[in-house]
Amino acid sequence: MTQSHTDADKVRHWWRTSIIDMEPGKIAFRGHPIQDLIGNVSFPQMIWLMVAGEMPTADQAALFEAALVAGVDHGPQAPSIAAARMAATCGVGLNNVMATAVNMLGDVHGGAGEQCAELYYGIATLMDEGTDLDQAVRDGLDAWRAEHGKIVSGFGHRFHKPVDPRAPRLMELVRGAADKGTVSGRFAEIGEAVQAELGRQRGGRPIAMNIDGATAVIFCELGFPAPLSRGLFCLSRSVGVLAHGWEQMGQGGRNKGPMPPEYLPLYEAKEDDR
After folding, report:
1. Where is this region: Disordered (predicted)?
2. What is the pLDDT of residues 194-235, one digit of tens each?
3. Which of 83, 141, 197, 229 is positioned for an S-S bond with 117, CB 3.0–4.6 A?
4. Residue 26 lies in domain
5. Under a CB-based contact definition with an 8 Å cutoff, are residues 166 and 70 in contact?
């Protein structure tokens, strides 16, 4: 092998991917020529193909799409949306506006679906080892709190009490998909059992399964690894971010902060300042 061939192989092997085969005049995703995909598959199907490596069935794609639709927006009071709208008044481009919001979707806000999926998968593992559902939920919650603290991701909402209107509809769709054999329904049972146990631990006061908890059920039912729950939610919420950013650009405004300028933050003086 000549030196030039060796160097060429080094370059070609620098990145390895089974996602796309691209060369002049050719684009294929996971073995599917782009011209065969355009006009024939939906955007949710395309997302699935790209991340999972295969084309979903129509029923899988419908359930997946429902989860994506449910998470698109939650209004300007959501920190990520508020930050996006503020960014839009600062003279940056729409891509910067969207990046501002997506970068805020972490463990507490928007990214909790990953943690909730980890909880569900952990409970499922306990059940695989022979623990019954109720005990697995209690043990899973104990293990969760020992690592993450008392707040359980995917449950509870500061606005929607005791019901997050998105969750019951998503769970209804999961149950329908389970009846058709599209999914097992196992993670729907786990999610609802966690919700019930948390209510019991609160002295009988019901607690909402929120959007993170419900979409985590769907992503687990569809076999997506827990970290993908966060990435998929980011894709979903990006739709709302785009809409709010574009709307704010149309409304105008300049250097808008988190509160009107006639209102100032509370200054808390230290003893040395008095």
Report:
1. 251-274
2. 999 999 998 989 999 999 999 999 999 999 999 999 999 999
3. 229
4. 19-56
5. yes
Number of domains in the chain: 2
* Domain annotation covers residue 109: yes
Q: Are both 125 and 239 inside the same structural domain? A: yes
pLDDT of residue 180 exceeding 90, the answer is yes
3-state SS string for 66-120: HHHHHCCCCCCCCHHHHHHHHHHCCCCCHHHHHHHHHCCCECCCECHHHHHHHHH
